[in-house]
Amino acid sequence: MRPRLLYDIKFVEEEYLTLTTLELLLESISKELRCNNGRAIVYCPTQEMTEDMATKSPRDLTWTQAMHYHGGIEDDDKKEASKSWRSGSLCKVMVGTSAFGAGIDYPNVRLVLHLYRSGSLIDYVQEAGRAGRDGCDATCVLLADQTDLEGTLATSSSGDRINQDKSQQPKVEFARFALSDGCIRLRLQHQFGWLRHCETWYCPPKADDSG
């Protein structure tokens, strides 16, 4: 895990996810994207959501274009979207599913946003790890519905079905990670048996329950 990545978790009610995402794009990195040729990736759980989010760039983001990328679009459209994002000529914000990832090694990604959750913790780490590959500061933000995460854990605690269904275990593991206290980096490191201590000062304040 690169030490200059800032990990943050923000609990947002589902109805405010889109608004919060757009605000983060504007407030956190608009200067980086506009002046320093940076890029942003917004990961969504469904194909429909990627298309919806990509069309909702606010007026203040008119200097760039958000494009969408998922497994349901034609190969030529995928290539065009990826090429445009890499060049920065039209697009500096890519809104995609996990399909946008293989072979992505662009150095100047300043923000990776996750809406809801990834398919698993390892997916989340890999996707967030596409930020800051140039060694400079970058931000990885998970926007999650706390009620939804708590419901996942409650179901896992009370019902045998989910305990027997191994396909649900990644969701339970992710919910447990997102809801636990402490430094997010340390949580991930301990989960995967990586570095034993937090060697960065980039952890957000505890007031956000972000670690």
TrEMBL record:
GO molecular function per UniProt: 3'-5' DNA helicase activity; four-way junction helicase activity
GO BP annotations listed: double-strand break repair via homologous recombination
Name of the featured protein: DNA 3'-5' helicase
Family designation: Belongs to the helicase family. RecQ subfamily.
PANTHER family: ATP-DEPENDENT DNA HELICASE TLH2, DNA HELICASE RECQ FAMILY MEMBER
High-level lineage: Eukaryota, Fungi, Fungi incertae sedis, Mucoromycota, Mucoromycotina
Any one GO cellular component localisation term in the record: cytoplasm
InterPro entries cross-referenced by the UniProt entry: Helicase_C-like (IPR001650), P-loop_NTPase (IPR027417)
Catalyzed reaction equations: Couples ATP hydrolysis with the unwinding of duplex DNA by translocating in the 3'-5' direction
EC annotation from Swiss-Prot or TrEMBL: 5.6.2.4
Helicase C-terminal domain span: 21-173
SMART domains: HELICc
